[in-house]
Amino acid sequence: MQAGNVKYRVAADVPLIVPVFPLAGALLLPGGRLPLNIFEPRYLQMVDEAIGGDRLIGMVQPALDGSLREDGEPALSEVGCVGRLTSFAETSDGRYLISLTGVCRFRIADELTVRTPFRQCRIMPFAADLNEDQGGGDVDRTALLRAFRQYLEANDLEADWESVSRADNATLVNALSMMAPYGPAEKQALLEAPDLKSRAETLIAITEMALAGDGDDFVSSVQ
Predict the structure, then answer these.
(1) Does 219 score more than 50 pLDDT?
(2) pTM to 2 decimal places
(3) CA 2/CA 132 separation, integer angstroms
(4) Closest alpha carbon to 3 in 28, 32, 26, 37
(5) CB neighbours of 4 closer than 8 A, spacing ≥ 6?
(6) Torsion region of 92: left, alpha or beta (phi above 0 gives left; psi -120 to 50 gives alpha)
(7) What is the distance between the alpha carbons of residues 163 and 172, in angstroms, rounded to a whole number?
(8) Is 56:82 a contact under the CB 8 Å cutoff?
(9) 77-86, pLDDT tens digit by residue?
């Protein structure tokens, strides 16, 4: 998997300890790009340290059941995705506008006790995500595009179909998963799908369920 000009070939290329950014509803997948607006002081420091180091940050959702640690911080979902900081800009009011490019998913082994204001975890990378061939040939592209087109029509939206037609299956599945306005539970299900084929099937199923409800789930999530 390539992120920026750095190639990650095996699990050993990914550090076992990464800073984590808990953010509900955020989905980063291998090869995808996630723009973020950073303004909280502890995460500004996290970005500063990432820039001075390996540029890797772990995106993870808070636990879906809403559970908290003893200090009041949210517990974390077990699975997240490591991203490499590939774009950075600072605004006049001190915010950071960054983009992360997904490297691979990970499972949290344990959360460390640290002195930094941001949280850090020991992780177990998903080595299969680093494989350039992610099984895109197994994806039912026709069914995926049909569901995508029906969703756009139901919500009176347009798409750049020329770009869609050029995208390979892995890029298409991951991009559609990241851009779809699902809730945290659906995002986590897409993240944890065992392979690309399963992720595409999950995406199709969620889309069909939303369409069966006249798109109410989609519309309410973006209002």
Answers:
(1) no
(2) 0.88
(3) 9
(4) 32
(5) 55, 84, 86, 101
(6) alpha
(7) 10
(8) yes
(9) 999 999 999 9
The residue among 166, 19, 181, 17 whose CA lies nearest residue 100 is 19
3-class secondary structure, 2? strand
Q: Is-contact 198 205, C-beta < 8 A?
A: no
Handedness of CA 186, 23, 170, 165 (dihedral sign): positive
- Interhelix angle for 196-212 vs 184-192, to 10°? 150
Compute the half-sphere exposure of residue 56: CA atoms within 13 Å on the CB side of its CA. 26
pLDDT at 220 over 60: no
Tokens read off for 68: 């908290």
**Number of residues written out for the chain:** 223
Task: Mean pLDDT check: name the lowest of 2-6, 40-44, 66-70, 214-218.
Answer: 214-218
The backbone torsions φ and ψ at residue 195, rounded to the nearest 5 degrees and listed phi first, read: -155, 175
